[in-house]
Amino acid sequence: MSAEAKFYPKSNQGRQQALMMAFMQNANPGLTNPLTQRTKDRLVAIYPEYNSKMLVMRAKKAESAGLMAEKEKLREKVAMYCSHFIQVFNMCVRRGEYPAGHRAFYQLEFENEKLPPLQLERQVARVAQNIIKGEQLRVAQGGSPMSRPSADEIEDIFVIYKNLISTGSNAKDALDNAQEDVQRLNKEANGVIKKVWREAEVFYNEQPRPSMREHARRWGVEYARKGYKKKVYGTITDHETGMPLERVQVKLSEGRKKVTTAIDGKFLLTTSLMEEQKLTATLAGYKPLETEITLYENRDTVCNLRMVKE
Fold it and tell me: Which candidate, 239, 233, 286, 284, places its Cα nearest to that of 262?
């Protein structure tokens, strides 16, 4: 049996799916089981633990994502309050209510009205803290308090924002730990998946290839639809005369590339497609031709066709 090209799972979700399918098949008493006892024991041990760790990881991921989204909304709100505070203060400066030099209380450039950057988390936190501390100093030295928004309003929302940052950080740590728990199981999961797939293929290898793959897929085997480059070539002739046909358009149904036969009726396609494919040939004055072929890894395919006139 030549080895069929397969897609071994590279993601945690792919491993979970492959293990689940094999676990369910193994648990079915009405099926002939192709697995050795050793592989059965490993499968029964790894799948429940892997599945449990994956469920925990998904829950932690959802929690972390929710907190991230909530934190981002609050960051935008704090940034808006800070921006409004500075803009209102600048208007007060223009009206002569505050001296321009008072911008220094908030760590702002006192010679212009330029807003500080408020895009990143650390930028928003720095500006909010400067406003809160600066307003306290300015009022303590006799300045009238700002309003709409006030520094107290900014502080209230900034406290909530800081708490959410801390909660989000803890959630991210919990997610990292859950991901590490899954990662620690991946070596064993990969080993079990490879054993299950190999034993399933060996068990069904005396059946026709499509039947073998159909049975193996029930155990989680995922065959590649693409592999290394290979050639599909042949000659197309007239069904009655046997003469080669020129300018016949040839393509694989799942491929994009089209080729045309030369004067001697020969064609050559290169493709990375795998498994069952349909090869189509069309030429004006002849009935379209479609034939099924099977493409294997590391093997070229010869396909000679005869076309019938319309």
Answer: 233
Spell out the domains of the chain, with CATH numbers in brackets: 1-223 (no CATH), 226-307 (2.60.40.1120)
Report whether 305 contacts 287 (CB < 8 A). Answer: no
Question: How far apart are alpha carbons 111 and 310 in whole angstroms?
Answer: 87
CB-based contact 198:267 (threshold 8 Å): no
pLDDT at 127 over 60: yes
Q: How far apart are CA 283 and CA 298, in angstroms?
A: 30
Structural contact between residues 289 and 280, judged by C-beta atoms closer than 8 angstroms: yes
Q: How many angstroms separate the Cα of 106 from the Cα of each of 57, 100, 234?
A: 43, 11, 80
186-190: average pLDDT: 97
Give the C-alpha distances (Å, rounded to integers) separating 43 from 3, 27, 63, 103, 196: 23, 10, 30, 68, 8
pLDDT band for position 2 (cuts 50, 70, 90):
very low
| Angle value at C-alpha 137, between 136 and 143, nearest 5 degrees | 90
The CA-CA-CA angle for residues 183, 21, 196, to 5°, reads 75
Residue with tokens 């897929």: 217
The tokens of 12 are what? Answer: 């945690």
Q: What is the pTM of this model?
A: 0.66
Q: In what order do the strands lie in the sheet with 258-260?
A: 258-260, 249-252, 275-282, 289-295
